[in-house]
Amino acid sequence: MAKREFSSARSSAPVEAGEDGQFVWTRKDLLGLDELSERQIVHILDTAESFKEVSTRSIKKVPALRGKVVGLLFFEDSTRTRMSFELAASRMSADTILFTSKGSSVAKGETTLDTVRNIEAMGVDIFVIRHGQSGAPHVIARKVKSSIVNAGDGSHEHPTQGLLDIFTIRQRLGRVKGLKAAIVGDIAHSRVARSNIIGLQKLGAEVVVVGPPTLVPPAIKEMGCSISHDLDEILPQVDVVNMLRIQFERFTGAGAAFPSMREYANMYGLNAARLKRCKKNILVMHPGPINRGLEITTEVADGPNSCILQQVTNGLAVRMAVLYLVSQAAEK
Question: CA–CA separation, 295 vs 102, rounded Å?
Answer without folding.
Answer: 30
